[in-house]
């Protein structure tokens, strides 16, 4: 994996958890808006919207650079629209990055998969 691909995956990973947290907070704010006088939906909606747009942009870049199959790309996109999906995306991306580092070190050391 080259540096640009690793950077694209890292950016997507770093925005995944905050996007998921903002989604959950937006849901809580929506409930509070309907049950109390507290209305933070406009603020949380803007924050979540920004994070979601960043997630989609970083997702498209990662898909392009990592050459994911359609199934993998679709999974990461679907995870972005589920309330806790960003946490699962972050965990999978972390594992994928760790596997790429291990494979890269093995190639550098001349280890060949049998």
From TrEMBL:
It is a multi-pass membrane protein. The chain crosses the membrane at residues 39-60, 72-89. Keywords: Cell membrane, Membrane, Transmembrane, Transmembrane helix. It is found in: Cell membrane. This is DUF3817 domain-containing protein. Residues 9-95 form the DUF3817 domain. InterPro entries: DUF3817_TM.
């Amino acid at each position: 994996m080259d540096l640009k691909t690793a950077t694209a995956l890292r950016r997507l990973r770093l925005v995944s958890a905050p996007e998921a947290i903002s989604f959950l907070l937006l849901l809580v704010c929506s409930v509070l808006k309907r049950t109390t006088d507290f209305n933070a939906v406009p603020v949380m909606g803007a924050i979540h919207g920004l994070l979601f747009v960043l997630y989609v942009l970083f997702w498209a870049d990662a898909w392009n650079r990592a050459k994911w199959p359609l199934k993998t790309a679709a999974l990461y996109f679907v995870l972005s629209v589920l309330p806790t999906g960003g946490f699962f995306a972050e965990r999978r991306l972390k594992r994928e990055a760790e596997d790429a580092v291990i494979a890269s070190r093995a190639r550098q050391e001349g280890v060949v998969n049998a």
